[in-house]
Design goal:
It is built from 9 helices and 2 strands. The chain has about 160 residues and is mostly helical. It has 2 domains: about 1-40; about 40-159, no CATH class. Helix 3 crosses helix 7.
Amino acid sequence: MKTQYIAFAATLVLLTTQPAFADSDSMQDEMMSSELMMPAMNSSEGRKLFASKGCVVCHSVNGVGGEDASMLDAEFMDIPMNPFEFAARMWRGAPAMIEAQEDELGYQIEFTGEELAAIIAFVHDPDEQAKFSEADIPDALKEMMEHLEEEEEEEEDHD
């Protein structure tokens, strides 16, 4: 009975947390084990985390954010979305991203599974991205970004 409940709960989580463009039949077919669960793919929370965690320092959405790394506008994302492929691309770029984070932010960004799921949902959700603006960026990060931009301009002037 417990195994059936876990299987039902895992299926329910998968079916109710996937983006609208995901086909529920294919999701069931891809479910490999009742012992797996997907965290909620909350794009609204992802919008907040994209800014507060510091992703916005290097990446941009809707032209808001840094230019040192790839734009993460939903229009450039693969549909249907495979969150594991997105995480795998992050993993492949981890050494460079960690170095940039330490240079730009002074620390390495850390995510929980739920936070990463939310950010992945955000970068694949054009409706939520349309709400993203500079107002989402915490003041301390805005100031840091402005300071970094000024430093880059000074370096360009000296070259």
